[in-house]
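Q&A log
Question type: sequence-to-structure
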Amino acid sequence: MSAHAPSPLPRDGMTPAQALAFVERHGIVLEAARRGAIPSLADAVAGETLAGTWWAHAQGKRIFAATRAVRAAADVLVCRVVDGRVSFVHARLWPALVRLADRFPRERLARLREVHGDDGRHRVEEVTFPNWLDAATLAAGRRLGEAAAREALAALPEAAA
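Response status: OK
Response body:
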């Protein structure tokens, strides 16, 4: 992932499939508010930079559908790696996270998963880092050079440290 500015936002929102492609293309995406070079999925779905919460936005239902599709994707890590906010990290960057894991608070690398109970309530379950990773990804991360990992995660200040 490069540190350049995110691509322009689509004018007509996006579908859940396009939301997954957006995360894959950018590598790291925030669910809501932007941070530096890291785009916001809510902004991308809305087709504009949102001020305040997306829940009340005219595109709120589309944003909800897109965020839930991304949260459910097997090749997307849902965590809090960016400033403790809900972050989506595509699988192509997981080896870089493994290589530079010591630069991040461990709790920010935990996989988050919403679990809905029979009573309609939901809770967030966390799988600690690196327990959510498979052996091949762990091995790939150990083989990855530090410079390549830093370049892949260039949008994260911790990666440059």
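Response note: The beta strands are 28-30, 76-82, 85-90, 111-116, 122-127.
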